[in-house]
Amino acid sequence: MKKRTVFGALAASVALSLTLGGCAGGSGGGDDAAGGGGDSGSLVVGFAQVGAESGWRTANTEDIKRAFDEAGIELKFSDAQQKQENQIKAIRSYISQGVDVIAFSPVVETGWDAVLNEAKAAGIPVVLTDRAVDSKDDSLYVSFLGSDFIKEGEKAGQWVVDEYKDSTDPVNIIQLEGTTGAAPAIDRAEGFADVISADPKFEIVASQTGDFTRAGGKQVTEALLKSNPDVDLIYAHNDDMGLGAIEAIEAAGLKPGEDIKIVTVDAVHDGMQALADGKINFIVECSPFSATSWSTS
Ligand code: GYE
């Protein structure tokens, strides 16, 4: 049995998009796809990635490249360095190069209608991966492959509720948010808040973005620990920010996982190591190979 990743699924979705979009392009597999899509007879996909902000993203990028390589589909890849304007530029460039399919993982949820309308007008199907867009017009993309971030936030919240079920003392929580406006930041905050709001002893005493990076998590935690010395728990929207928080907690002479508990999302290698070391208390898994299905092929 072989694990089929989201990008194995993406390769399949790309084939489907071609049918739906009625685009030109062959069945792929050629080494001759040097230029734009369509004319060369092999399939060309432009992928606009968010950036390289986290261990999750690095694993995700490697998986995308491997899946397209294995499928024999030419991949044009760009890294937007977490900036929406860079992603929009990359998408516009894929449109002018005439790729067969555009795939992207939107850095934030809103503000995509104009560029997606341009892709639609050019007859290029768009596949969303990992993160969704917030648009009223669902004709702007053909499919979305990604995780349920609200559920992830709920799972994190449920662990917190269970962990403190025998205590009536107040529980002061610092939240390290992902990129402002990004689907996983919005949804992970929402799911978590929904679950912990059932008991007023839980209070989010401070909540700030660390932009899904280790440096961001460290910096924000350093500052917030000064203004909130009696914090009990940190909920970080990803492992990397949690790992940054560990550094800040240790620098303050405290023990992460004991003096201050840490809950994160992702379960990348370094996060799992910190969990094994007792510095992170709980991780909600969000696989970079998620939307995973199993097949025998
Ligand atoms: O959790 C985080 C990354 O969009 C699910 O983005 C992804 C998130 C992931 O930077 O580590």
UniProtKB/TrEMBL annotation:
Residues 1-24 form the signal peptide. Residues 46-284 form the Periplasmic binding protein domain. The keyword Signal applies. It comes from the Bacteria. It is found in: Cell envelope. SUPFAM superfamilies: Periplasmic binding protein-like I. Keywords: Signal. InterPro entries: Peripla_BP_I, SBP_2_dom. Belongs to the bacterial solute-binding protein 2 family. This is LacI family transcriptional regulator.
